[in-house]
């Protein structure tokens, strides 16, 4: 049975937008909010080139990666055809206006991936 961890209020996630969740280890998780207030959680990394999905455009139940416009389904984390691949998804629920994630998944999923580093100082870290 999941142990739910409160992350933020539903209103803290913009409609048709995203919010990033920092974890103790591993890459960040992105929370997405649809027009009808459904919330989805995916690893904040496109399966194509690692683009930050949290910076993409949310439409319907999908997000478009800001780098190469791959469409990722929010419910499954899978790329829409003709593209292939997927990003890990996390269990999420909204209770009394509070967005919650499964604490065990936050602590264990996709920890083998290094956080993305970009910019002129990335090579020196």
Q: Report how far the terminal alpha carbons are from each other.
A: 39 Å
Shape call: globular
Q: Could you name the CATH homologous superfamily?
A: Rieske [2Fe-2S] iron-sulphur domain
Q: How many separate domains make up the residues? A: 1
What would you say this structure looks like, in words?
- By secondary structure, this protein is mainly β.
- It has a single domain (4-124), classed as Rieske [2Fe-2S] iron-sulphur domain (Rieske Iron-sulfur Protein).
- Helix content is 5%, strand content 33%.
- The chain has one helix at residues 103-108; strands spanning 4-9, 17-21, 29-33, 39-43, 57-59, 62-64, 71-73, 89-90, 92-95, 98-102.
- The strands form 3 sheets. The protein has a 4-stranded antiparallel beta sheet, with no helix packed on it. A 3-stranded antiparallel beta sheet has the order 1-10-9. Strands 5-6-7 form a 3-stranded antiparallel beta sheet, with no helix packed on it.
- A hairpin with a 7-residue loop joins strand 2 (17-21) and strand 3 (29-33).
- The mean pLDDT is 92.
